[in-house]
Amino acid sequence: xxxxxxxxxxxxxxxxxxxxxxxxxxxxxxxxxxxxxxxxxxxxxxxxxxxxxxxxxxxxxxxxxxxxxxxxxxxxxxxxxxxxxxxxxxxxxxxxxxxxxxxxxxxxxxxxxxxxxxxxxxxxxxxxxxxxxxxxxxxxxxxxxxxxxxxxxxxxxxxxxxxxxxxxxxxxxxxxxxxxxxxxxxxxxxxxxxxxxxxxxxxxxxxxxxxxxxxxxxxxxxxxxxxxxxxxxxxxxxxxxxxxxxxxxxxxxxxxxxxxxxxxxxxxxxxxxxxxxxxxxxxxxxxxxxxxxxxxxxxxxxxxxxxxxxxxxxxxxxxxxxxxxxxxxxxxxxxxxxxxxxxxxxxxxxxxxxxxxxxxxxxxxxxxxxxxxxxxxxxxxxxxxxxxxxxxxxxxxxxxxxxxxxxxxxxxxxxxxxxxxxxxxxxxxxxxxxxxxxxxxxxxxxxxxxxxxxxxxxxxxxxxxxxxxxxxxxxxxxxxxxxxxxxxxxxxxxxxxxxxx
Length: 501
Hints:
Layout: E1 3-8, H1 19-25, E2 30-33, H2 39-42, E3 50-53, H3 65-77, E4 82-87, H4 97-106, E5 110-114, H5 119-125, E6 140-144, H6 157-163, E7 166-170, H7 176-185, E8 193-198, E9 206-211, E10 228-232, E11 251-254, H8 261-270, E12 274-277, E13 281-284, H9 287-297, E14 305-308, H10 311-323, E15 335-338, H11 341-349, H12 363-373, E16 382-387, H13 393-400, E17 405-415, H14 420-429, E18 432-435, H15 438-450, H16 455-458, E19 462-464, H17 467-474, E20 482-483, H18 489-500
Parallel strand pairs: 1-4, 1-5, 2-3, 2-4, 6-7, 11-12, 11-18, 14-15, 14-16, 16-17, 18-19, 19-20
Antiparallel strand pairs: 7-10, 8-9, 8-10, 13-17
């Protein structure tokens, strides 16, 4: 039996999704979504899910409400067991959820309502505006400024003016001057605080705070703020006019491989930044590499130590181990060395605690401290799993110290292609570029050289994760403006906050 779930996606920030909403959108067979659902939330939906974008943005509807109602009934009749109707905010707050519920009920289709956080509460909160406050506002009223005729709804404006709490108008960007004038004529003071809260809870959020009287110019165009709420009341005085997130309004480029980018992207966005994804490399293995890896895995007892120099090396090594029907116990004859905290975290996720990690996270310190601090026998070779394109610096340094090293190519780094205009637009709009590996730097520069765009890097501050990546930046005559104190994502984000916040 088909069930249609009317699900609220919240105001935009993916972290404000309810647990139930996340469960449904990641397991549904079909998702029908509105234009106001955040792209970051759409990204959470599995690629095998059938998606229907039905629009529903003021002035640019891709489907009328009656057509959406008919679509839901038609999809349910096909027999899909789980259909999600995904709406921005809450399905029952100015989102036609009640209409769709009635249509489903009349058609005998099973449905479930999944509430979401409405923008009227969340968006002001992200600017430290409480919709109620014991001292200045004991009520809040949510209203829609949109009507089918396009005119201002026929509210009892005198009653609203006397209410004394917080007024929150949805879909009112084209009616700002009319709303302000109507309230003033009904008795509100022109000095009453008012604010447009645009794209609340997203990295693009903005606040335009004035008095009610300053919003009465009918010639002023506020459509650039769409979608936005118009909030009126004394609670606005409690805001300092900015979000409490230190990276709000900043655009930061993330060059990590796509499958790794999420951790840095989420960390940046949780601090208010807009993360611009520009992965420069794609990691993959092939049959030739897999065959060589399988040979080494069958001979692990030959090695005294295994040196892991990146989380990628850990990921591909253990993936190969599992393909061979083995697990972490296969490493028991060997001792394990890790280059730094991120690699160590990747190992610990596999149940492995490394025996050695240097105090500085680059090849020279790795080799020097290993030779100085570890009494490792020279009769067994050292295994260095890495990218097929990895530099041999560590292997050479260890060989100079008398160790036999065998490199194990686990994966290849393939460059990702971009058009020149896409690169130019992304780099020109950013406040910072981040790089977490030398290969990301090399591939980015090679890509920019193809289009003669390398000058864009000279104008863009670069933040890197560790001295090894900093060295890659310097090899092109550039100087990173910021090097994370520790080679970890939290350290990199913390350094950006200190610099940009």
